[in-house]
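Forum > Structural Biology > Help requests

Title: Can anyone predict the 3D structure of Apple domain-containing protein?

Hi all, first post here. I have the sequence for Apple domain-containing protein but no way to get a structure on my laptop. I'd be grateful if someone could post the structure tokens.
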Amino acid sequence: MLTTLLLTTFLSLGAVSALEAGCRWADGVPEYSIPERNNKKITGKVTEDQCKAACEGETDFTYPRNKDECPFVKIPGTYLPGRNLFFMKNVSPEDCIARCKSETTFHCRTIDYHRANRNCNLAIADRNDVVLTVHAGLDHYERTCDRKIF
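Reply #1:
Sure, ran it for you. Structure tokens for Apple domain-containing protein below:
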């Protein structure tokens, strides 16, 4: 059974917790929900230095540290109906994503891109809010980050 927390150190990569029965490290970004896949645990008796070294050497965490690093996932042949907050004409998907990332009037989460006419819509909603609709000529792009990072 794990005993009380002995130490928490915030590093550039995350937080290290040394425990008598092992250690655990996780992200130190405030107000960000850490998915279970982004936590690691070392079992057995380890020192603070061993735990810190393991954390600093970790390359397997898959989350961004701020909203500008949030990658977009493409969901071809779909769009998010009725939630558009901004419209752009004659742009590339990359231009539309860049605008979404730089938007200051709302927290842009997704874009819908019409391939034939090169138009796109920016929205605050995502698949958690509205069910995607199938449309062969449109592609939906969505940030992969947890909403709490915004």
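The chain is about 15% helix and 35% strand. The domain at 67-149 is CATH 3.50.4.10 (Hepatocyte Growth Factor).
Shout if anything looks off.
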